[in-house]
Amino acid sequence: MATVEKLEAPHWVRTINSFYTYLGQDFLGGPKLIKMAWVINMHKFLTVFVVALLMIWFNNYSTAAWVYMALHGSYGFCWLLKHVTFRDPKWETRITFGGAGSVFILLAAYWVAPYLLISDVLGLNRPAPPTWLIAFCIALFTVGLTTMFASDCQKRFTLKYRRGLITEGMFKYVRHPNYLGEMMLYAAYALLVQNWIPWAILAYFWTTLFLVNMLMIESSLSRYPEWEAYKARTGMLLPWRCFTTKPAPRSQVA
């Protein structure tokens, strides 16, 4: 397959990527006996039990608490199902014990949202999420989960049988629909909490991890000759270009 010289990612992107590669794979050194997938899967598996324990500990069995446990807990088990059926090769990387600890601590930050929602740390008389907001969060989570898993599935099996740039299906208008879907489902959790702290945590992950990963991926994909044309007609996360791109003028018939 023909390739061209790829465009290098910005220096700040490469710096942050190198830092997280060290933190997640080589931290503290030593033998690499643990797969990163094992750490991620453990976090996904434990989430529903962590939320359930929070509900029991704080005696909070509100509708919002049950909905949160259903959404975040089911996402964890859907992730495990995805791992069993079409696992992502990048999570098969072997890491050190220090790397495993740092990855799990980073992922544990996602448990701050249910703690804030279920505990009384934000006040005993804090108003519960209105019914319309709960319904919206369920819808946002459902669309996000579908977008993420459909994109991952398409990417996994397309690249299995044909290497190269994926420009159709879920990737026709958006270059990173899998990241978009994951952002949507985590946004649903933050909306349920009705506090700025989960959004601050998400902003940290979305800028230092998601954005960096997307820019590193785009740097790698720029080696394909059709990359520039594909990039010009798509959005990184939103399909805005399909609404702003003017159609080509029709040819005049003599």
Q: Which key features would you list for this structure?
A:
disordered C terminus, two-stranded antiparallel sheet, 254 residues
Q: Give the helix/strand class.
A: mainly alpha
Based on the structure, what is the oligomeric state of the protein chains? Answer: single chain
Radius of gyration: 21 Å
- How many separate helices? 10
Distance between the termini: 41 Å
- What is the average of the pLDDT values? 93
The CATH class designation is Mainly Alpha
Strand content: under 5%
**Number of folding domains?**
1
Helix content: 55-70%
Strand line-up in the sheet with most strands = 1-2
Number of strands: 2
CATH topology title? Four Helix Bundle (Hemerythrin (Met), subunit A)
Q: What spatial form do the alpha-carbon principal axes imply?
A: globular
At CATH level 2, the architecture is Up-down Bundle
The helix/strand order is HEHHEHHHHHHH
Summarize the main sheet: 2 strands, antiparallel
- Uncertain stretches: 248-254
Description of the molecule:
The chain has 254 residues and is mainly alpha-helical. It has 10 helices and 2 strands; from the N terminus they run H-E-H-H-E-H-H-H-H-H-H-H. The chain has a two-stranded antiparallel ribbon. Residues 248-254 have low confidence and may be disordered.
